[in-house]
Specification:
The N and C termini lie far apart (45 Å). The protein is of the alpha/beta class. Strands 1-2-3-4-5-6-9-10 form an eight-stranded parallel barrel, surrounded by four helices. A two-stranded antiparallel sheet has the order 7-8. It has helices at 2-7, 9-26, 46-52, 57-68, 79-82, 92-103, 133-151, 179-192, 241-254, 282-289, 291-303, 314-323, 328-334, and strands at 39-43, 72-76, 107-112, 157-162, 197-201, 218-223, 226-229, 233-236, 259-266, 308-312. The protein has a single domain (2-27, 39-334), classed as TIM Barrel, CATH 3.20.20. Helix content is 42%, strand content 16%. Helix 2 packs across helix 9 (241-254) and helix 4 (57-68) crosses helix 12. A hairpin with a 3-residue loop joins strand 7 and strand 8 (233-236). The longest helix has 19 residues, at 133-151.
């Protein structure tokens, strides 16, 4: 399906425009599909916190658990961190993260596979490049099996996420999408655990159709409102909350997907090419994520009818608070958990 849309990209555009128009007519920006109860969480990457932001990642992680007091967190089993040497597993850092969250009764979404959250998307161990494609696939399946077997009995893990936006071929340093391998990964995880399987896709650059037929029960979407493109600069998505609500209803009717959540809600500013977030000024951050924009993104997610959403950028909030003396993002997000 992804290759079909590469060759027929205009169909994707027509489809998205059609949904936007229908949702605008049906609900415009004023319909409110908010649920009576909503679960919030964050995504955390120890690699991103340490290498990109220069943080003590353990201190940042504990602050997220104890100061923000989150009750849901999405973690990643990075292949290059766990199996740096072929056949030798080192789960020390991930064990620590899962144990600390479990001690506090925090629910965990654990992402497994080759392509996981944060750049470069595919976190390959160095030895992988020396393998033939078929051998690399076998190694990938073996790694996923090892991770799931280690954590499948942990009561705090609510979902296993298999890969991250695997059909978004325009972003990341990764091999071409492999639908058959993805389906095999999902099937393998299903054999190992009864926990629900989460699969993810872009909320702005995909129809969700292909990802909805790989075997997962839950679909995780991105939700971005202000983004950056080198050709046009910063721009705002025009779609109203009803656009997402209608897509969710259609995908649940037409596909095996049982539930749709926001796996990546924009709560971190969008950096320009070759500029690290740590190098940007507050004025630059405000171009895509001012404090008011953060509030708007949270409110938009509620009105779109989602009942579960994971904010993207908790490590950055901590960096802005401790490194830039700007705790406003941190304090605003904290209101979701600390009443």
């Amino acid at each position: 399906m992804i290759f079909f849309f590469r060759r027929h990209w205009f169909l994707l555009i027509v489809f998205l425009i059609f949904l936007a128009l229908v949702s605008a007519i049906a609900g415009s920006y004023f319909f409110d599909f908010s649920r009576t109860r909503m679960e919030w969480g964050v995504t955390f990457s120890s690699v991103y916190a340490q290498t990109e932001l220069g943080l003590d990642w353990q201190a940042a992680y504990l602050a997220i658990l104890d100061d923000l007091q989150v009750d849901n967190i999405r973690l990643s089993a990075y292949w290059n961190q766990i199996e740096a040497v072929n056949g030798r597993y080192d789960f020390k850092d991930l064990d620590w993260q899962i144990n600390e969250a479990s001690k506090r009764q925090v629910k965990i979404v654990l992402a497994v596979g080759r392509r996981l959250p944060r750049w470069p998307e595919c976190h390959d161990p160095e030895w992988l490049k020396d393998l033939k494609a078929i051998d690399a696939e076998e190694a990938q399946l073996k790694f996923v099996q090892a991770v799931v077997n280690r954590y499948k009995d942990n009561q705090q893990i609510k979902y296993f996420q298999v890969e991250n936006e695997p059909f978004l071929s325009t972003f990341g340093i990764c091999p071409p999408p492999n639908r058959l391998l993805l389906k095999e990964e999902v099937a393998q995880v299903k054999k190992l655990t009864a926990k629900p399987i989460l699969v993810t896709d872009s909320g702005e650059l995909s129809t969700w159709w292909s990802i909805s037929h790989v075997g997962g029960e839950i679909l995780g979407t991105t939700l971005y409102r202000v983004v950056y493109n080198p050709q046009v600069g910063y721009f705002r998505w025009f779609t109203p909350p009803a656009f997402y609500w209608l897509r969710v209803q259609l995908i649940k009717i037409l596909t095996p997907i049982q539930k749709v959540i926001v796996a990546e809600l924009q709560a971190e500013s969008w950096h320009k090419p070759n500029i690290n977030l740590a190098q940007m000024s507050l004025a630059d951050h405000n171009l895509s994520l001012s404090l008011n924009q953060l509030k708007e993104n949270i409110a938009f997610t509620r009105r779109a009818g989602f009942d579960e959403a994971y904010l993207w950028g908790a490590e950055w909030w901590y960096y802005m608070k401790t490194g830039k003396n700007y705790p406003e993002y941190w304090n605003e997000a904290k209101k979701l958990w600390v009443k």
